[in-house]
Amino acid sequence: MPDTDTCPCGSGQPFADCCRPIHAGERRAETAEQLMRSRFSAYAVGDLNYVWRSWHPRTRPAELTPDAEVHWTRLEILDSAAGNAGEQTGEVEFRAHFRRGGRRGTLHERSRFAVRAGRWLYLDGDLYG
């Protein structure tokens, strides 16, 4: 994705100023919501290496397999609990919109995050209908 394009996370900022530096390890997500947004944008741009690195080692899969048919299109943050700078845990409820084979779909999840070694990481989540 060109750095000047709007970031897929929905912030309205250019990708170069928003999630790309987090993906590249130039800076860290400061909150659980920022990590959630950076993970969504990583899925959207196909950076599964970042998705894997930002997953807590206790719960992450051994590997991630890309699904070329899924195109992530939009992220809606619905709610967040805790997960601010200086806190150790947080939750973010979101809807991630996608297209697959010409059909639209939505993934609705409440994700849990925790800080480990000074970094926010995705733990797990509960899916809704």
Compact description:
It is built from 3 helices and 4 strands; from the N terminus they run αααββββ. It has 129 residues and is an alpha+beta fold.
Question: Under the CATH scheme, which class?
Answer: Alpha Beta
Describe the main β-sheet briefly: 4 strands, antiparallel
Contiguous helical run count: 3
Number of strands: 4
Radius of gyration: 14 Å
Coarse morphology: globular
Total number of domains: 1
Any guess at the CATH architecture?
Answer: Roll
Strand order of the largest sheet: 1-2-3-4
pLDDT averaged over residues: 96
Order of helices and strands: HHHEEEE
| Poorly predicted tracts of residues | none
Per CATH, what is the topology? Nuclear Transport Factor 2, Chain: A
Helicity, in percent?
Answer: 10-25%
β-sheet strand percentage: 35-45%
For the termini, the CA-CA separation is: 31 Å
Q: Which structural class fits the helix and strand makeup? A: alpha+beta
Furnish the topology, listing elements before pairings:
Elements: H1 20-23, H2 32-45, H3 48-53, E1 70-82, E2 89-100, E3 103-116, E4 119-128
